[in-house]
Structure formats: C-alpha cells, structure tokens
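Dear colleagues,

For the upcoming journal club I promised to circulate an example of a predicted protein-ligand complex. I picked one with flavin-adenine dinucleotide because it came up in last month's discussion. The inputs are reproduced below in full, followed by the predicted structure.
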Amino acid sequence: MGSNKRYDTIVIGAGVGGLTVAALLARKGRKILLLEKEGQVGGYVVSFKRGGYTFDATGTFLGGCQKGGEFYQILREIDAHEAIEFIPIHHIRNIYPGFELSLKQGGFSSYADGLMDLFPEEEKGLKDYLSLVKRIGDEIGSYSGMTLTKRILFPFYFRNLIRLHRTTHQTILDKLFRGGEIKMALHTLPATEPPSRLSFLFVAALINKALMEGVFYPRGGMGRVSHVMADSFLNSGGEISLNTKVDQILMKDGRPIGVLTEEGRVFEAPLVISDVNPNLLMKMLPLEFQRPLLKKTELFEYSLSSFILYIATDLDLKGMGLPYFTYLRALSDLEEEYRMMRRGEISKNPTLIVSIPTLLDTSLAPNGQHLLKVLVVAPYHYQERWGVTSPETYRRVKEEFFQKVLLQLESKLIPDLKDHLLFYEAATPLTLERYTGNEQGAMYGLASTPEQIGHLRPSHQTSIPGLFQVGHYTRPSHGIVGASLSGLFAARSILPQMQKP
Ligand SMILES: Cc1cc2nc3c(=O)[nH]c(=O)nc-3n(C[C@H](O)[C@H](O)[C@H](O)COP(=O)(O)OP(=O)(O)OC[C@H]3O[C@@H](n4cnc5c(N)ncnc54)[C@H](O)[C@@H]3O)c2cc1C
C-alpha cells in the first residue's frame, strides 16, 4: 500500500453529516478525503434538474437557520453562512378531518396560538405542554454546558430528562388534553412514528431547537445546502471523489488503515468516518469485526420511507392562494395508519405533504409555471416492494399510486391539476434506497422511539478504535440539522485524537 495516497481522515458518504464533519476537520487544517458513490454530494439533500425545472429530491424545510440558530452556527463555523440565503416559511396550512389550521406567521408559538383559538377549552393543557417543552429545552441547553456541579447534582439539574426519558408523545398528550383533534394537530411533526412510539423528549427537543423560530427554505433549492458545505470543504483544501463507492474498510491491528473502493482503488488514513447506514458499514468490515456489531444492528428499528411526486404545472397556484406548505390528512386514527404501513399497506386516502417551492423562489421554474412536491409516508414492502420483481410491474405499481395521489390532490386541494400537468415523475422507497444506501429507504434513519434517542442512539465513536460514524442513525437525531449536528459532535470528539498538522 506504500504508493497510495494518504490522508488524515477518510469520510465515506457525502450526506449532510459527512459534509459537516469533513468541512469542520478540513478547516482545522487536516487532510481529508470525502468519498461519495453518487455523481453529486448531499445524499438525501439534493436538487435535480429536468429541463428548466429544479426539483428538491426529498426535504421541504429546515430549522435553526436564523442568526444564532443551531444550523446557522454550524454554517458559520465552516464560513458558509454568507453563501446561502434562507427564506423564512410563514404560510402553512394543516387540513385535518373536520378542522384546519392556517398560519401566516412562522414559529411554533404562533402555531400554539392558532391551536388556542381553535380549542379554547384545552388552554390549560396547552400551557402545561408548552411549559414542559420549555423546561426540557432548558435542560438540554444546560446539558451541553455540563459542569462538575451539574454532574454531581445530575438528578436535580436534569429532572425532566431523567423522568421522561422513556415517555412517548402519547403519554403526555393523553395526560394534558381531552380532545383527539388537538392531539393530532400537535403530532404533526417531521417524524414517521405515531404518538404511541415517538419519544416525547425528541418532540420537545425538536420544538425547542428546530421549530420554535420557524422553518426555512434555501434560495436555489434544498441542494444548495449541500453545495455550500462542499464548497467550504474544498476551499479548506479537502478532496472529494465522486462516483466512488467504498467496498471495504481495511484493518490492521484492530484499527482502520484505509478503504478499498469498488473499482479496486485504495486510499489510506488512520481514521475513517462513515456517514452510511450502520448495517452497510458493518458489511464493509472484515468478518471478525462484523460479529460484535451484528447484535446491535439487528435490533435497530428504522423510520418509514416515502413516495414522492414531482410535478410541474401551468396553473396559477399563487393566484389560488395556496401556501408553500400544506399538510393534508384524511384519517384521524394515526395509530391505525401506522399499523397499516408496518403491514406494508397504505390507506385509501393517505396523508399528503404538499410543498410549492416556486412560491418562495421563482427561479426554480420558467415564468408562469409552478413546481409541486407531494410526499406520502410509505412502507418499503408495499405490494411486494413496489412490484420490483419486473420493470413492468414496478412501473405499473408506481403509476397506479401516482394516479391515486393525483386524484386525492385534485379532489381536496388543486382542482383540474390533471389537465395542467407539464411534467411529472415519482420516486418510491426503492429509489431512495438506491440513491443513498439508506436501507428500506428509511427517511429519517433510526425511528425516534424512546429506545433510540439521546444516548441510546449509536455514538460517534464505534467499538473499533479509529472508526467513527455520523448521520441520521447516530446521535443526536434525524433531519438535516440532526445529521449536521452529528457531524459537529463527531468533529469535536475526533479533533483531540488527531495529530496537529
Ligand atoms: C422524503 C424525505 C423528506 C425529508 N424531509 C426533510 C425535511 O424537510 N427537513 C429535514 O430536516 N430533514 C428531512 N429529511 C431527512 C434528512 O434529509 C436526513 O435525515 C438527512 O439528510 C440524512 O443525512 P445523512 O448525513 O445521514 O446522510 P444521507 O443523506 O443518508 O447520505 C448518505 C450518503 O452516503 C453515500 N453512500 C452510501 N454508501 C456509500 C458507499 N459505500 N461509498 C460511498 N458513499 C456512500 C450515499 O450516496 C449518500 O450520499 C427528509 C428525508 C426524506 C427521505
């Protein structure tokens, strides 16, 4: 291996977690190589072009982008904060069976105000809910500034974190509210788990950290986020090799010494950081290192996947008064909908999450045209894995599901859409899996159940010295900001272990 190129660290996978850790380490003068199997960086956070249209492959918004916000701070640390403009998303509409909530102001507090107007009889419960969420937020904030006193008096300072670490959202909702409607509205969150499975600490952290100050859309499309991070990395001297799939992690004396790519190229480094699914990471290791990890990965529970529709239309969506974001729910039983999905089924009227990015950024489509993205949380095993047995069956299953979603969209939100389709394309859970290596197309990595959050999520240092992991299967949580924070935390723990340049 003597003639091969040597680096301080190799990062496998250029998702947001991988980009963050790579950019942070490169800024500290370390020699970093980032290997990505696709022809572009970003993983889930990419945009793609079709003619004059720029579509976002997956995500709709992100939080923490305001000055001082968590994501803003990370971008600042890699000097990318001025290279991107975040547009605040104010206009949202949540439509539920029998009621709806429409907001022109961003932020969770205005969402709570809207709920208070709709459900005045639940005022006390809502106040208690917000106060509990805030107390947990304060404890989480205090936890990151841990002192010796706090460590000694841990149960005193972190009472709620200890008390509620096994609690689901359902338990809190049932305790504080009487009506099912407000519970449903409060569970409208970026997570695929129903109230009975979603960790309440996760919900509280999400509201405090990502939703409180509102959510944002990056001008130019979601892929812009990954591009500015990659640019920062390259400007700091980092190297990216695209279309390079890592096949094996090479080991010596119990530590990684480099990687072998699918094409047979070898890159050397004493530290390897993985931003890929932990099961795939395990399979990259020699057999004797796989066995201890297998026990852990077998127990992981993934989040659900999704079906995504990309549409271009010449309908005047702005004139129709549609907001950027619409959540359209027809079923009131969240638990039953989830149980169906775990059985591989999807309800007749699935929940639709509709976004219209051209209302925020007109440069994404030609004048007078709009882009729509419709996201349906969906199981990987629907109709025997979306009819993957033959290309014709796959196309048929996909087209039938597309028509079903279109019909629902037309009847509930955008009449005549069918006659005004200029372009459409769809992605299934299999598409997500193929492009990003997320097994079963898991949208959010590990499901955020009480058993898989906080310190119960895999840590960045694996059981193998010199091998680290980042991304939405690891701490602290999922989402663009969660994955980016995993990169930040990993960089903080790795830097002291690396030799100074
Ligand atoms: C449909 C959908 C909607 C979403 N909406 C939002 C949203 O609105 N807001 C939000 O905050 N989050 C959203 N998320 C979640 C968010 O996008 C993810 O949690 C986050 O981007 C995951 O980042 P990651 O670092 O874990 O890497 P990933 O995005 O999983 O990327 C992993 C990378 O590793 C590469 N790779 C895999 N194997 C190899 C290999 N062997 N060699 C080299 N490279 C390899 C892949 O090609 C990929 O680029 C959404 C996700 C989905 C699917």
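Two points we might discuss: The longest helix spans residues 123-144. The CA atoms of residues 180 and 332 lie 8 Å apart.

See you all on Thursday,
B. R.
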